[in-house]
Amino acid sequence: SAVISQKPSRDICQRGTSLTIQCQVDSQVTMMFWYRQQPGQSLTLIATANQGSEATYESGFVIDKFPISRPNLTFSTLTVSNMSPEDSSIYLCSADGTIHNEQFFGPGTRLTVL
Amino acid sequence: AQTVTQSQPEMSVQEAETVTLSCTYDTSENNYYLFWYKQPPSRQMILVIRQEAYKQQNATENRFSVNFQKAAKSFSLKISDSQLGDTAMYFCAFGSGGSNYKLTFGKGTLLTVNP
Fold this sequence. Notes:
Chain A contains no helices and 11 strands.
């Protein structure tokens, strides 16, 4: 299984600013995914990031608000732009495993927007 | 679109006992994958067990096993000899067998193991 790290692990940000979350995988992977998890809730997929192409966003999420980069097969970033308190959440990245649909997750980034 | 339902928001079990978490799903596909993930308070999502729909044999991983009923679209997780470290949120997830590699998660079941 892949080992995934995220930075930062947590942050407190001011309204109107932006935060970039980094996700690093210890091996090359085809697909990476970004999720949002509200406190006590399930995971909601934001977008799928493939290397060499633009990210594919889920309904309700747009590139201007959540720009994603995927410069190589081991790294991706998610930016939360022009933040509001409603963006306070845990953001998780994951990468595909060897079994179809299997995903391994990073430890998450806890974001608080004041 | 696929849906995943976990009807038990919270459960508790005594240490060393057995507990079963339920999960049902809705799909028109015949080939798909099912997963149980565990998220302890540290919030790290950990893959517990997986089941390929084309396999009739139920998957097992040490103290964790599933009861996969394809016709009933049911995928329950049994934890034997529960340990304090099993305390976590458990999510059932569905993955399509096609070119879509996304996972659909249930709302989760919070399991507490009591000493």
